[in-house]
Amino acid sequence: MQIGYKLMAEQYGPDDLVRQAVAAEAAGFDFVEMSDHFHPWLDRQGHSSFVFSVLAAIAAKTERIELVTGVTCPTIRYHPAVIAQAAATLALLSDGRFVLGVGSGERLNEHIVGRGVPGVRERQAMFREALEIIRLLWQGGYRSYDGRHLRLEDARVFDLPERAPLLAVAASGAVSSRIAAELGDGLFATEEKPEIVRHYREAGGKGPRYAEVPMAWAPDEATAVRAAWQDFRWAVTGWKVMSELPNTVNFEAATATVREDDIRDRFACGSDPARAMEVALPFADAGFDRLVLLNAGPDPMGFIEFYRDELADRIRKLAPA
């Protein structure tokens, strides 16, 4: 079992994220995973830095820890050719420590370029074409592609690593799990659903399986719950809501009825390692072998120390089903 630390680009500025990544490496985390957003989920979060710039800075200040995007949408806000180039560059700067996590995107971030955000079926078709383009460019040479949704004309990524970055594909159901198995090197998910891993394996997927585990560290439970409710209550709405709302004001409205008890049910709140293990266990039982610890609490450095001192040895003993 490998354990990662979630860098919340919506919650902290770029300098803070770099400091957290350096501390995560020192504490023994295997990788850091950073969200790729243009907007935060809620206005009060107040940040949203450019993921590839921040990860490049982290690569320069660390030696061992793996870097993962969690996740990048390579279809609307970015053309897949740009992502193929960015990922190749970051793989070189990190000496092969970069993993490109990709997904079909959220309206919150993709609508900003004014091209419209299609429905789920068309988004997934675009996503499949985008992954084909990225794979094509990573083969080297000049490449063209004429898809139904995306085009590429005489493009070449000149600076390629000897080994292409691992491509981890986000999935939430059968169709996206098949895309992950067919075009990706690994699976990425945010829910502890065994059927996601089952669909991935049935489609031939054999790669690493990443999942985010919701935690909120503070010395006492009440402080942790309150902090998570203030800044992370959007996380209990579910993927169908999270992928479709266009702006922070919509997430404010959609989460107006979320209670603190809803946060307690979903997150491991406080400083009890037993509760943290209780929340992490279903992800291992579902078959995930790369657990990303997301801290919704108010003190990221305190959470990293908590992991190092009280949680690391326990959670590493979990065995994926």
Automatic annotation (TrEMBL):
GO terms for molecular function: oxidoreductase activity. Its EC number is 1.-.-.-. Residues 7-289 form the Luciferase-like domain. The keyword Membrane does not apply. Keywords: Oxidoreductase. CDD domains: Tetrahydromethanopterin_reductase. PANTHER family: 5,10-METHYLENETETRAHYDROMETHANOPTERIN REDUCTASE (PTHR43244:SF1), PTHR43244. NCBIfam families: F420_G6P_family (TIGR03557). This is TIGR03557 family F420-dependent LLM class oxidoreductase. It comes from Streptomyces iconiensis.
